[in-house]
Amino acid sequence: MGGGGSTRRVTFEADENENITVVKGVRLSDSVIDRMKEPSSPGRQHRGSGAVNDEELKKRIAEELALERARRDSEAQKRRLKQEQMYVRDEFGKLLERERISSNEHLTRAILRERAATEEERQKAQRFARQLEEKDRELKKHDAYYKEQLARLEERVKPFFSLLTKSF
C-alpha cells in the first residue's frame, strides 16, 4: 500500500472496548488522526457495539498513510522543482554575466584597436605635415636663392644693356 516499498511493520493495540487506540511504528499527522476519528459512513459494516472492523480499519489507515505519503512526495517534488528552478536561474545568470563580460572584452578590444589606428593616423598626418613644412622651407630657400641669383645676373647684365640702349 502506498509508495516507497517500505517494509515497516505496523502494530495495533486495542483498548477494553475493542477500539484501536495505538498504532505503533507509524507517525501519523494530525489530519490523518482527525480523519480516523470521523464516524464511519453508513455503508460500512460495524461489529457489535459500534466497533470498527480490524480489516476495515487497517485498510483505512493504509489509505490514509498512502495519501499522507503522496502529499509528502508531492511537497518534496515541489521543493525539488523550486530548487531546480533556482539552479537554472542561477546558471542563466552566470551565463548572462559571462556573455556580458565577453562582449565587454570584445568591445574594449575593438575600441583599443580603433584608438591605436586613430593614433597611427594622427602620427602619420603629423609626419606628413612636418615633411610638407620641410619641403615648403626648402622651396622658399630655393626661391630665395634663385631670386638672389637672378638679381646678380641682372646686376652683371645691366652695364651691357645700358651700353646697348645708348648705342641705339
TrEMBL record:
Membrane topology: Lipid-anchor
InterPro entries the record matches: MIC19/MIC25, MICOS_subunit_Mic19
Keyword Membrane: yes
Subcellular location: Mitochondrion inner membrane
Any Gene Ontology biological process: inner mitochondrial membrane organization
Gene Ontology CC: MICOS complex
Sequence segments annotated as region (Disordered): 29-57
Signal peptide location: none
PANTHER family: COILED-COIL-HELIX-COILED-COIL-HELIX DOMAIN CONTAINING 6, MICOS COMPLEX SUBUNIT MIC19
Protein's recorded name: MIC19 protein
Gene source species: Rhagologus leucostigma
Organism lineage string: Eukaryota, Metazoa, Chordata, Craniata, Vertebrata
Gene: Chchd3
